[in-house]
Amino acid sequence: MAAGRGVTIIPENAELTTVEAASALNVSRPYLIKLLDDGIIPHQKVGKHRRIRMEDVVAYKARDDREREAILDQLVGEAQEQDMDY
Could you tell me which residue ranges the Helix-turn-helix domain spans (predicted)? Predict the structure, then answer.
């Protein structure tokens, strides 16, 4: 908000479209579809359309953030071991 960007509040039990979920994760819709098809993020089909629970989107984001942080910590540790000034 301080940066002048809008804020959207979505209930945790809301079901999102693939466009909404991709936007919430800041990924492309085709990449999100791959995550859904690979079973990485659970979803339901309503007719031909996929619906993703907001709580599953939040859980994936948290898991992805933790994994990214662990990889970065490992890289920093390796760089420090090699005296690369990180």
Answer: 16-63
Distance CA 76, CA 70 (A): 10
Domain of 34, CATH number, reads 1.10.1660
CA nearest to 58, candidates 50, 46, 66, 47: 66
Tens-place pLDDT, residues 51-67:
999 999 999 999 999 99
Domain containing 74 equals 15-81
For the chain, the residue count is: 86
Dihedral (CA of 62, 67, 70, 75) sign: negative
Q: How many domains does the chain have?
A: 1
Q: What pTM did the predictor assign?
A: 0.74
> Are 32 and 22 a contacting pair, CB within 8 Å?
yes
Residue 29 makes CB contacts below 8 A (sequence gap 6+) with: 18, 19, 22
